[in-house]
Amino acid sequence: MTLDAKAAAAPEADRQRTLRTVHGTELVDDYAWLRAANWQDALRDPSVLPAPIRDHLVAENTYAETVLAPVKPLIEAMVREMRGRIKEDDSGVPSPDGPFDYYDRYREGGQHPIVCRRPRGSVADEQIMLDGDALAAGRAFFDLGGATHSPDHRLLAWSYDDKGSEFFTLRVRDLATGEDHADLIEETGGDAVWCQDGSALYYIRLDDNHRPLRIFRHVLGEDQAADRLVFEEQDTTVFVGMGEATAGGLALIACSQSDSTETYALDLTRTDAAPRLVLPRREEVKAYPDYHPDWLGQKTLFIRTNDEAEDYRIVAAPLATPEREHWTEIVPHRPGVLILSAHVLKDWLIRLERENALPRIVIRNLTTSEEHAIAFDEEAYSLGVLPGYEFDTDTLRFVYSSMTTPNETWDYDMRTRSRVLRKRQEVPCGHDAADYVTRRLLAPAADGETVPVSLVYRKDTPLDGTAPVLLYGYGSYGASMPASFSTARLSLVDRGFVYAIAHVRGGMEKGYRWYRTGKREFKTNTFTDFIACAEHLIAEGFTAKGRIVAQGGSAGGMLMGAVANMRPDLFAGILAEVPFVDVVATMLDDTLPLTPPEWREWGNPLADPEAFRRMLAYSPYDNVTAQAYPPILALAGVSDPRVTYWEPAKWVARLRATKTDANPVLLVTNMDAGHGGAAGRFDRLAEVARSYAFAVAVTGAPEAPAQ
Predict the structure, then answer these.
(1) Among 554, 619, 639, 691, which one carries the catalytic annotation?
(2) Which tens digits make up the pLDDT trace of 627-658?
(3) Is 554 a catalytic residue?
(4) Which of 183, 191, 347, 640 is catalytic?
(5) Is 675 a catalytic site residue?
(6) How far apart are CA 167 and CA 141, in angstroms?
(7) How far apart are CA 16 and CA 29, in angstroms?
(8) What confidence tens digit (pLDDT) does each residue in 121-149 have?
(9) Among 112, 161, 675, 691, which one carries the catalytic annotation?
């Protein structure tokens, strides 16, 4: 089975040359016209996209469908397999809060979650608060956003996005009647924080450039036009976020940059309260507080910070006097042991930390200071903490999985140190973990570093250099890729693939240093690490040159574009999903939603000539050359506010016009969705199956899975 690259003529984008000189360098762009002048309007309503642009994207979709026609039966077979591994009428483990247990579930055949509650401890008397399937009916796209009940459990603030643009509309539902109030709050970030008396709520309103810079208070029953601005960040390089502490009564406003933070506290017991600065910004310092209303007799902030602690430490400070001179060290810094998160309960301080790329949970008794850890024995695994709603509890909920072990949800009694399995992910068609192997390798990089690689494969897969590999990478923003379980992934693994995750620099798998040495002036480490992982898999006999399919999305899509330019010979194919590939043009455009906030991640090419030259040297779009490239499948979303649709569209056009081979370069743009693709859980499977079928086709892997 092969792709039919000659089944139709590939679209040829018009060339409309534009010239721009930046820091003495002339930039030539033949495809800048694909960026719609009315892109802000198109985010809200994709139908207003100019006809020439829309026609080009539709032509690309038609061409991709034609070339992919031979794998359509495989896509359909994979969707059936993936769906067969999903328990369709699944339900989450209820989370208690006062008189109720709250949870989400799905109905048989349902695409969207049903948000429910029932009396605490009961298995009957379910109340459906939101029916995602009913709300989505008749809409081409629907994403259910936040759902937050009021402190008295009478009301539900909930939100939805029906364009894929991540402009969420916020509503308020009366849980006694099931009816929504007339309140309609538009263009929000999707989440809400309630005042304690339930008379008002706070939300973040996105500006015209899709930036979260302002917080408003909405009094129930009033028009949105009357909402009061309570906080505004003037610096457009900052992201503003807001959340209520588990202890209740206090909201924490986080003003974040990639390398620094600033925090304000807002008293939720007063509807006229103003935010108070508690942790001012300091260059290169991050501080993430949680709140305890009565520790050692006073209101206290527990702060996870990298202040004089690259891999973070935890300190405590009185809420009334949170200045640095009042800090008390609780958990000291230990180089190489990265504290990923910290959560405070009445009697406990819980932290998730990682050492040697493996996570563990550490629990500290706030009275005795005694600590103990929860860890596991597999070579590679994923571990996450689910804090829940309640502050006065001895129960910690966590989720464990590995690349061979389905998700397990546990309730852990921190006082007795006993655990109860609350749920094990069901795979209806069957899954035997013993049929699979998970491994952790260390790939040597040219500068002496070793790059972790997580693997999963069937135990009967021959490791003689013949196996195809899908190698996934990201490597930006300090995001670490978990070695977790995926049912969809089995459709590749059962066809003889080795599935590998390259934990490249730019993430934090090996501590904060791993992130620091993979951004800005060190960004190329991300790309060379990925190449080193591919070469190590070849050297260790897992696969061979030309048998590897590289996959990455968003900033990981930039990684795909970079390695395609640098080492196209290594790869059988490239899967670039919503890829950030037009790096220079995007970082020069300060009107785009993410550009100013991301200058600290990539550098500011407008103000810094060296950052501009550095970026220009690796930007995938700007470094397409006349060489042979492997087959490429690029995915985009027409209403994507993060990686705008024109980045992959321009990249594909330049690749086709420049490369020297006959391999197909395909662009598929979801005309009804944004950055995350299809929102429905089964619709999403079709997108995943298309990517995996492409990988099977370009490697010549078996069409049928092993039995």
Answers:
(1) 554
(2) 999 999 999 999 999 999 999 999 999 999 99
(3) yes
(4) 640
(5) yes
(6) 13
(7) 8
(8) 999 999 999 999 999 999 999 999 999 99
(9) 675
